[in-house]
Specification:
Arc Repressor Mutant, subunit A; 8 helices; four-stranded antiparallel beta sheet; 2 domains; Rossmann fold; single chain; elongated; alpha/beta
Length: 228
């Protein structure tokens, strides 16, 4: 699986030689790579860089990897976190996974093993990065930023595209307005929740969903897309 351009990886470790080695190797694989020497830098960079994967060392001075992971996941980010630990202890693995980590590697590890873990996380959490995904009557091509419905490409604004992609990817799940705002507009969006209603109305028009049978409104709860 060759990565498509634009896949972003953040490396967090207080050992410069490890950062340099991993950065060079992952850049040669076609990834867009940034590095951070400590937890606070990683948290700030994650907000700016918006990585798909964070490779995060547990044992760092100051803010350790556990707290860094907790803070990053607290922001509602969908990023995949792979934690690096020098201890092959069950307690460390359980703690990391409980705080939101998606995988872990025990030091020392091979570059090929890390690469395999990164690709596995990308396949599981960001399948749309690698080609066209078909869900019910929808076809989503994230590389072209195009969504087709019943074989016809929809004319969507960038925000409409992100909103519809998010709702289709989470079909069958009730999505509140606040959740949609966090995931589509960003957690720091300062506008009103009613903006979601405006965009949902526009999507219904473009989908010909006059009866609201595709994008359903659940009063007091939010919206749900049904693909069946």
């Amino acid at each position: 699986m060759k990565p498509t351009p634009g896949i972003r990886i953040l490396l967090v470790d207080d050992e410069p030689h490890i950062l340099q080695f991993l950065e060079l190797g992952l850049a040669n694989e076609g990834f867009d790579v940034r590095t951070a020497p400590d937890g606070m830098t990683a948290i700030n960079l994650a907000q700016e860089f918006v990585p798909h994967v964070i490779v995060l060392d547990v044992m760092m001075p100051g803010m350790d990897g556990f707290e860094t992971c907790r803070m990053i996941k607290k922001g509602g980010s969908e990023v995949a976190v792979i934690m690096l630990t020098a201890k092959d202890e069950v307690d460390d693995r359980v703690k990391g996974l409980t705080l939101g980590a998606d995988d872990y590697l025990v030091k020392p590890f091979s570059f090929d093993e890390l690469l395999a873990r990164i690709r596995a996380r990308l396949r599981n959490q960001f399948p749309m990065l690698f080609g066209e995904v078909k869900l019910g009557r929808f076809s989503i091509d994230d590389r072209r930023k195009e969504i087709q419905y019943e074989g016809q490409a929809l004319e969507l604004s960038p925000t409409e595209y992100e909103l519809l992609k998010y709702m289709v990817a989470n079909h069958g799940i009730v999505l509140s307005k606040s959740t949609i705002l966090d995931k589509v507009w960003g957690y720091d969006f300062g506008g009103e929740e009613n903006i979601v209603e405006v965009y949902v109305r526009s999507l219904r028009d473009k989908l010909g969903d006059k009866e609201h049978r595709l994008i359903r409104t659940l009063r007091g709860a939010g919206y749900r897309i049904d693909l069946s």
